[in-house]
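Supplementary Text 2. Reproducibility record for the structural model of the 561-residue chain.

All settings were left at their defaults, and a single model was retained for analysis rather than an ensemble. We include the record here because the model underlies the residue-level annotations in Supplementary Table 4.
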Amino acid sequence: MTPPYVVPARPAVLPGYLDIATRRRIAGWAQAAGAQATQVQAGGEGSEPAALQVLDNGRLIARVIANQSRPDLQQAGFGDGRLGFDLLIPAPLSAHERHIIQVRREADGTELIGSPVVLEATGTFDDDLRELLRQVAGGAQTNPERENILSFLAQIADDLLTDHARADGGQEQHDHYRRLARRHGPEIEEKPRAPRALLIDERLPVAGQDAGSQALLSHARALQALGYEVSLVAADDLSPPADARHALEAEGFTIWRAPHYASVEEILRRQSGAFDLVYLHRIGTAARYLSLARHHQPGAMLLYSVADLHHLRIAGQAEIEKRPELHSLSRRTRLQECTAAWQADAVLTHSPTEAAWLRQAVPQARVACVPWAIRKRDHTPDVAARRHIAFIGNYRHAPNLDAALWFVRDVLPELRVQNPELELWLVGPHLPPHLSWPEGVRVMGHVADLDGSVFEHVRLTVAPLKFGAGIKGKVVESLLAGIPCVMTSVAAEGLNLPASLTGLVADDAASQVACIRNLYAAPEECRRLGELAQAYVAETFSADHTLTSLRKAIMTARHPR
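Retained model, structure tokens:
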């Protein structure tokens, strides 16, 4: 005969509540049972507090007595309110495991209301762990204790940064495949990865800001087209502006920065051997990091991009400004540039003039002339509708400020005698605010859109540089926009202008005045020269030409004759 079905008794529940259950702290309150509970509620003196057990995944981890004062319970009518418990767990529970926390009466196993509490495993640095660290750090009373904590945290931070760098550099994946190969044999092949290129400059490049930025961005995009994973670091600003960083990340570039890295040295060291190519832009970064890159990235190709030969520009400034101390600086800079060219696997320059100088000064150097790509404008400007001229440059750069002052003083007044409506637009950032300008000068400041704000409105541009080096980016952009640029020989350096455009070169004030007056009075001639300049520059500074030249430079560095 089948016995009658018996409904199991519902387990007893201990009066009270489990208020807090974390990996560090267990707190709540509990009443004693039976007659003792009645005495507590009545405010009696002879009751014994509840003795409780705390369990983690069924394992006893602590015992506690519910006898701490809880004013809130007293106000609610629970006797004198001495029913609370608050336990700090000596060894915090692991964040990487799932925990079932139970609180029960020791005498008979009756569980407290709210028990059990489930703490899920987490891989994050959650509030419990943060609070624990704060408590430990805040509890230090002496400097030796603080030094001990700092030493421990520094070691943990160093380990985390090393792991972060190994993941960044693909070393973790490489080690994983090596372990698989040892276990399963050589038939386990590592998944091929794209070659990695690290580009180092003093600051992050910003599109449209200066010729150096344009050149670096162009070469970075060319490296991407050649199959490289490209990352950039700003040696002098490891916390770059968010908008500049986001713009580059949107193009697929990785930006190394704080807090993961505190310096370029740390990137090279922590990602030792992880790069296939290191590109050092300008002598400032090459002088600081070329030897270090060779040490920490022994298998990487090292490219030194001169941007322009700084010592030539400084020597010209010394002559113009009659400053003998700059002659000394020029000699030191020349030594640095020649040493970097000798140490690098290849030297990149934009100017054929500078390439010839480097080949003569450092015969052992592998010098390549690699231009940068500039976006071609497809429209032909209506020159006849224009009335003004513009000088474009970054006025923190000494040659640009000197040229602007000279032009305003010696050239512009003569031009306005015949054409009083003519204005000179000074376009570009960092023009000293203390300078005052005569009538006919319009200070534009930084212009993000040269096409819409400048090239659509001026008939000519000028580049009256007295000293400088390398190819001048704003001259190239003006010519590519179909706007003739009246320039000095210094500004025309490295362009190898065809005979049809050499009439735009004028060095002294009288020649500049004559050239500008003639072109200003002949809109059709301006248009014709603009079209010739546009065609010439579009071919020389095309993306295809840049890509081909950079590929050839890399192949030459990899397989020197």
